[in-house]
Amino acid sequence: MKKQTVSFRLESDKVAELDALAGLLDRDRTYLLGEAVGAYLETQQWHLEQIQAGLAEANADRVVKHSKVKATAAKWRSRK
Questions:
Q1: What does the alpha-carbon distance between residue 70 and residue 68 come to, in Å, rounded to a whole number?
Q2: Which letter does DSSP use for residue 71 in this model?
Q3: Which residues, 6+ apart, have CB-to-CB distance to 18 below 8 Å?
Q4: 10-residue mean pLDDT series, the chain (80 residues)
Q5: What is the Cα gyration radius of the chain?
Q6: What pLDDT score does 6 carry?
Q7: What is the pLDDT of residue 79?
Q8: DSSP characters for 19-48?
């Protein structure tokens, strides 16, 4: 995949932590930043997919009614 240079500002202490971690892992700063951005994007994509799936369920009226949730919670509390 073609790579592109991206520049952004980061607090000095975070740069120091990043460099320390890179040294411990025998990787460079660019590698760690790429991994971090990839993990962030993957997490955000998953989150958005879950929201869309939940909205689709709600729009299709495939939800548990509040009264049923309350009744179930009450049963759990009474089992103590």
A1: 5
A2: H
A3: 10, 29, 32, 33
A4: 94 97 97 97 98 97 94 90
A5: 22
A6: 93
A7: 85
A8: HHHHHHHT--HHHHHHHHHHHHHHHHHHHH
